[in-house]
Amino acid sequence: MTGRMSWSLTTACVYFVVGVASFQLMQTLPQLGWLALIICIVAICLLRKCFYPVFFIAGWCWAWGFAAWALSTRLPAELEGKTLTVSASIITIPQCSRNICRFNALIKSAETPGIAPAEKKPVSRQVKLSWYYPSQPIKAGQRWLLKIRLKRPHGMLNPGGFDYEQWLFSKRIDATGYVRCKQDCERLSDNLTFGAWLQRQRQSLSLQLQQTLEKSPVSGLITGMTVGIRDDINPQQWQVLRNTGTAHLMAISGLHVGLVAGLAFWLLKRFTAWIGVKRCSPQQVAAIGAMACALGYALLAGLSVPTQRALIMLSIIFGGVLLQASIRAFHLLALTAVVVVVVNPLAVLSAGFWLSFGAVMVITLLLLGRHQTLGYWQATWAIGWRVALGLSPLLLLFFGSVSVLAPIANLIAVPVVSVVVVPASLLGVVLSCVSESLAAVAFGLASSVLSAVMWYLEQLSALSFSTLSTPRPEIWAVAASIAGVLLLLSPKGIRGRWLGIIMLLPAVFPRIADVAHGTARITVLDVGQGLSSVIETAHHTLVFDTGIRLSPKFDMGSSVLVPYLRSRAIKQIDILVLSHTDADHIGGAQSLLTALPVIRELSSYPQQVPGQSVEFCEPGKQWQWDGVKFIVLAPLSPYFNNENNNSCVIQVIAGNHRLLLTGDIESTAETRLVDEYGKLLASHVLVAPHHGSKTSSSSSFLDAVQPDLVLIAAGYRNQYGFPHQSVIKRYQLKNILALTTSDSGAISLTIGKHQELNTSQNVTKYRYQSIHYWNML
């Protein structure tokens, strides 16, 4: 193949990948009528011998067809909440803690009571289940007859937050739910496929590692690097890894697979040359053996997406060795990307797809045309800072932060982990088949060295300037910054390289919509079944409640509230109000207090909530920020026995508009508020008391408040049935517009001076603003 043909093929591959990626920006699936237009465009391009757009269209159509097929297997809406009896196989390693196990299951068959056989529809194929108090140990590969309840893929949607629905879709998970039975679930005979057998072996090895490294603080990290299971890495360690840009080292990634393949190739090539194999060249024998080793390591990782990408790239490289054909780096990248997106077009939804290919491209640009040989440390440093700079636009886009110290951290961490920790861990895996005591020695060496590396990274992470955090930039700003990075990384002879710094600025300093003096921006965040609201004035911020804490590793403070505040470039909280002590209101408080400075804190139970020097929510307490007035109205004495009724209640006055924050008060507290304040309660916007429960939003209270808009914080298909239908009907009878976070995502609006409160136009519903074809409406 000539050089010109190779570059033409590479360009065609790029067009195809861009076509696949561009489809993922669609808000809804196109109608079939689009096919006629597409056929006409393709015909025109072919007649004019303009072939590259055809490859773009081919990629776009391939992604369209795959997306339509993937969505067709989702749980039908009519089966949500129904009890299904299913035969299912556990296809992932269960994550078990505190009497609950979570796993993915493949449904083979299902029975739906109350639905005639002729009306039955197929149940989703792959589902994500939670099993509380399982009757026996749960293992990968087991088959069960289960009673389950499912719901369609649904997640919280907030500015700066994680799109859980996109993650479920990219993993091809068609529904989520839980197991209802305890003792009456029936264990079926196992029918182990290769995949199920592999997962079971990985689970056994993971348990062995946990026992061997029980007292090691880095046991979770070694398990992640050895078998690709990262469940035991604690949040503090993840934060250190993110702050230092070394998270890629602590899971089986393309770097590790490439390292194993390269080491195997070098050893086998030497050994084959030494013994004198005649039928094949040493390179060809080494290529086959190295590919086998890479495949084995990838299988150990459960064939995760990063290892699949690495295997595809290594297959092309070693295929070229076997055929004795050289492949240029850019051709290799393009071919690998095409194979990845043909196998799974949804791979482009992963940040890892772009980061891994971006890193390889930066390294290729460094080595391209370089005649001078660099020393090991010089090469490591040169690659480190260039990769950190090259990936910074993508890191800001996907995560809103980039590690400033990544080159320094990786300068030590990469060689130590690659040369000592990973080989010692893999040696331990091999020795575990022979002697557990010898395996313990290898794992102990890996643990000791990795503990020293983590100490080094912790010192770097503790520095105040370790990371640069900004709101996520717009796509155009990221495109401009990528062009700027390429300019900065270009050879020294090119003039105007300094312009790359200017091109980086829009991504590093994105524009944030200001809050005008005399106005308040209200955002009720989508935190599932809980409450967290943020009130912003021109120069101040109040946070009212922080959502729920679901596990030691997951709470709404770190996953929703803090990312939202960072998306708004908020550096500190002036006042944090924890209305009462219910877990769904204060669960994320500690994460918020750790992430950002909080100047003052108020609560109706100051001794029982996280924080120091917490003040009491005393009625009559008030303050003014930037022309906006805040007044504490409750809890009123004498206090209720019911904690909900002692919630802090705050009124916000901006210009002629008012907002009422009510916590979890119920009808008895509402009545006392009406008696105490009467018409002073009148507010244009009301955050619904107690998530819209039937014991709240009494008719007399609504008559006193007279809201135009009610914002309801409630989880999708929550177990309490909030908001209650009787309350919704009450709002409708009084001509009050009611919006729920489970339907709308985060809800934002602005009230105040010179601001018209048009409840149908002035309200931003994030689910509708950021909609993609995989999101539920």
Mean pLDDT: 87
Q: Helix share of residues? A: 40-55%
What are the segments in which pLDDT stays under 50 over at least 5 consecutive residues?
none
The assembly state of the depicted protein chains is single chain
Q: Given the helix and strand composition, which structural class is it?
A: alpha+beta
Q: How many distinct beta strands?
A: 26
Estimate the strand proportion: 15-25%
State the main characteristics.
eight-stranded mixed β-sheet; 16% strand; single chain; 777 residues; 25 helices
Summarize the structure in short.
By secondary structure, this protein is α+β, with helices and mostly antiparallel strands. It contains 25 helices and 26 strands. Helix content is 45%, strand content 16%.
Q: Topology, pairings included?
A:
Layout: H1 3-23, H2 34-47, H3 52-72, E1 83-90, E2 95-97, E3 100-111, E4 126-132, E5 143-151, H4 164-170, E6 175-179, E7 186-188, H5 194-212, H6 219-227, H7 235-244, H8 254-275, H9 282-300, H10 305-322, H11 329-343, H12 351-367, H13 376-399, E8 401-403, H14 406-431, H15 436-461, E9 467-469, H16 475-488, H17 499-508, E10 519-524, E11 533-536, E12 541-544, E13 549-551, E14 554-555, H18 556-567, E15 573-578, H19 583-586, H20 589-595, E16 598-603, E17 615-616, E18 622-625, E19 628-634, E20 649-654, E21 657-661, H21 667-677, E22 685-687, H22 699-705, E23 709-712, H23 725-733, E24 737-740, H24 741-744, E25 747-752, E26 763-765, H25 766-769
Parallel strand pairs: 4-6, 12-15, 15-16, 16-17, 21-22, 22-23, 23-24
Antiparallel strand pairs: 1-3, 1-5, 2-3, 3-4, 5-6, 5-7, 8-9, 10-11, 10-25, 11-12, 13-14, 18-19, 19-20, 20-21, 25-26
Helix pairs in contact: 1-3, 1-11, 5-6, 7-15, 8-9, 8-10, 9-10, 10-11, 11-12, 12-13, 13-14, 13-16, 14-15, 16-17, 18-20
